[in-house]
Amino acid sequence: RMAAECQHAEIVAYLIPLSDPKAENSLALRWACEKPGLRCVELLLPHSDPKAENSAALRLAVTYGNYEAAKLLFGVSEPQKAFQMLTSRPGISYGRENVPEKFMELWHEHKLKQRIEKALGSALDTPQRTTSPRKL
Fold first, then answer.
1. How far apart are CA 74 and CA 106, in angstroms?
2. CA gap 27, 56 in Å, rounded
């Protein structure tokens, strides 16, 4: 957890097979989300539960301004639960302003990206009409 909190990616990578990243409801992932940086989150994510503690990793990433990690977590977390926790419990934003607004902004950005990717994927999957050469 300490290596993740301090964003020591090499140490985190070394320790993952020797430890249990899911321990204490994936606390190492949550701590990694509290500091700027994406590499430790990327390393821990496949070995952690991003939905633990009502998607606390996502909530903490937004609260502490680690927006790149938040963007990564939106696709594997439960944003509804994270937002509900963020807005229902006083003080959960740790005195930071505009956290719910930033959360919603990032969430809408994520949804828009998904719609665009889906539309592009559909366009690429649709066979194009080809004309066959005419026989004379």
1. 9
2. 9
Instruction: Single out the residue of 76, 2, 3, 4 nearest to residue 33, CA to CA.
Output: 4
The first and second tokens of residue 105, run together, are 């902004």
What would the pLDDT profile of 18-73 be if each residue is shown by its tens digit? 999 999 999 999 999 999 999 999 999 999 999 999 999 999 999 999 999 999 99
What is the b/e burial string over 87-110, where b = at least 16 CB atoms within 10 angstroms of the residue's CB?
A: eeeeebbeeeeebeebbeebbeeb
d(CA 104, CA 58): 12
The per-residue pLDDT for range 74-110, each reduced to its tens digit, is 999 999 999 998 888 877 777 787 898 999 999 999 9
Are the C-beta atoms of 31 and 61 separated by less than 8 Å?
no
pTM of the model: 0.81
Look up residue 71 and give its two tokens: 């963007």
- Cα–Cα distance for residue pair 54/83, rounded to 1 Å: 9
Alpha-carbon gap, residue 62 to 16, rounded angstroms: 24
Compute the distance between CA of residue 82 and CA of residue 64 in angstroms, rounded to an integer: 14
